[in-house]
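Researcher: Go.
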Amino acid sequence: MDGRDGFVEPVEEALSKIHAGHILDVATGSGGFITFLLDNLGDFKEITGIDYNQRPLDAARKAFIRDNIHFLQMDAAQIEFPDDHFDMVCIANSLHHMEDLPGVLSEMQRVCKPGGLFIISEMYRDRQADTQHTHVDLHHWWAAVDTAEGILHHETYTRRDIVAITEKLDLKSRRYYDLKDLETNPMDPELIQDLDGIIDQYLHRAVRLKGGTELQQRGESLRQRLHQVGFHGATSLFMIGKKLS
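Model: Structure:
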């Protein structure tokens, strides 16, 4: 299967049938993807979230006060767990943040048990509605500000790029789903206010950066788009596969 055609079964239904044991969430940040798993997985024994940055991990520890959910500061390209350790490994919306993506994915495969589940969820930049392109364009501007500040942050991939990445992995039974939500109000006042606040933060950072004037102009142009077109989250490609035995 090349990933062009998603399964009829919704991804939430597919996850509800999964009885995971020990799970590793790579580049967990503040634990957003763990929340998605908790809402949809059939059940699990334990989740370990790892991230290179300590700050989001502190927020995650405050948000998830459970004995079977743990967070560790760790380099995803050098995962400090033995081979074949986890029943499921996952990474969400972080492929475009990785300096050594092949190394990270190789490490994830190493620590996944034979026959274990491998999940990737990643937003993509093409095939988006106008309101979703607001998200894509904002995200790429955020990446430009981060990059100018020396923070590793690439622009997002195309859908075909993500499929190609997954096809290089030693997996079987790959299933692909396109996740999007166009039902919410794209002009929701609270949403617009929150995004205005994020834009303000990035504009403040851009002032002192090389090329700051251009970055500021780009940001204000995107603010106008936000208020004129509205905002929906970009569609993500969600892949579930199994590590070859």
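Model: The chain is about 40% helix and 20% strand.
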